[in-house]
Amino acid sequence: MKHNPAFSSKLKTQGSTQSLHSIYLFMNRHILCLLLTIICFTTVTAQNDSGRISRPQLDTLIIKDTVKKVYPTHKIALFAPLYLDSVFTPGGTFRFRQGIPRFMAPALDFVQGAMVALDSMNEGKDTFQLNIYDSKAYTQTIPWLISNHKLDSIQLIIGAVKDAEYKPLADFALGRNIPFISATYPNDGGITANPSLIIVNPTLRSHCEAIYSYILQNHSTDKIILVRKKGMQEDMVAGYFKQFNEQEGKPLLDLRTLNFDSLPKPDILKSKLDSTRNTLIIGGSLEEAFSLKLTLACNGLNSKYNITLIGMPTWEGFASLRKGTGLLNYPVYFTAPYYNTKLDSNSRMVINDYSFNYKGKPGDMAYKGYELMRMSTTLLAMYPGEFIKHINDPALKVINDYNFRPVNLKKDNPVPDYYENKHLYFMRIMNGAVTKAW
Question: What structural domains and CATH numbers belong to the chain?
């Protein structure tokens, strides 16, 4: 792992009610001496005199180097649900003897991936100060940080947040005219007229839009059926496809809808098919039981009716589809914003540096943290004050392809409601393997 003598970062964790021992890590064998006060339990543990796992003092991580010249310092705030106040007792003892609890692991992975990115940057003149905040803190909450002016000097916010933490950060970013990168939440949170908001994980609307566009270009002569069940999310999906199909005032595709009260019934589905035509079925539900039942029905009917099945983005994570029981050689398609073979140079760097620093294997969230931090620091250094203007620069690609577009939910809006990544990969699940389809 090569460290950059012309780059320095200053990290801070906030949102604690305790102040205990610090964790010291000597990560640079050449110049840098780190006083690390972010919790990295996958790498090290801190013990007090009684031998208990202690909570690090949440102060500033100091990096000392030999750089004497003063270069621009870019201040970044990273928010993640670390649950520090939940995993420690009031006395500072770590509650989980078996290791990192599952509810904390994704956020910790995200933070560690971002730190790998900072640590592996090439030599440059810019300095980056990264402040890491626990979005689930009991006391130093996001509203508290804002009202107490703790974020006033921040130039960029990266947040793996949702729900109650989402809107305050978006509103603050708009008021300060700084970018807020929503790293993981596939939702706009009801936010409008906020061109500071950048949504990386596309919304359900964008997934439906990508599926519709693909069908329009490649399956317009097929028999097209949206199969759904009762439910609010299913109403939303059906509404999106209706909106896209009738945006010119009349339907562009002959898109039929087949409704079920709950799970699909193969005999009813069969009655809607035509053996003389190819059939494309849209799985219009986000639930796993529905997806499996529909997939099994399509598989059973496929030999006679030649059915292509495209599901919702949530289908990627369904164990029943990945297991593939009863689905030999039958492909299921879905859209996804991320596709990582882990064979590119950046992914290999994450694997190597993560293993070196944290003695473990990076999860998906580590790659996301790494990628967004690399992109963000490059943009801040190259285009200060013009972050969003250059966000689609091809030279910024780290692992995945992105295409951030302004979203105007109403045509007469004078400014974008937000910016959203519209690039989606079409993926295929077959025989337990997930691969890129096109």
Answer: 9-201+342-402 (3.40.50.2300), 204-336+425-436 (3.40.50.2300)
Helix, strand, or coil (residue 145): helix
What is the pTM (predicted TM-score) of this model?
A: 0.84
Q: Tell me, what DSSP letter sits at residue 187? A: S
Q: Give the helix, strand, coil percentages of the chain, each rounded to 5.
A: 30, 20, 45
User: What's the order of all strands across the beta sheet hosting 62-64?
Assistant: 23-25, 33-36, 62-64
**Integer Cα distance of 224 and 220 in angstroms:** 8
Closest to 288 in 3D by CA, of 239, 332, 256, 225: 332
Give the pLDDT confidence of 5-15 residue by residue, as tens digits: 223 444 444 54
Complete DSSP assignment for 304-363: HH-EEEE--GGGGG-HHHHH-TT-TT--EEEEES----S-SHHHHHHHHHHHHHHSS---
Q: Beta strand pairing status for 279-283 and 332-336?
A: unpaired
Q: Which two tokens stand for residue 366?
A: 């580590």
Tell me the pLDDT tens digit for each residue of 307-351: 999 999 999 999 999 988 888 899 999 999 999 999 999 999 999
Tell me, what's the pLDDT at 249? 87
Strand order in the sheet with 255-260: 255-260, 223-229, 279-283, 307-310, 332-336, 425-430, 433-436
Q: What is the DSSP string of 50-86?
A: TS-B-PPP--B-EEE-S--S---EEEEEEEE---HHH
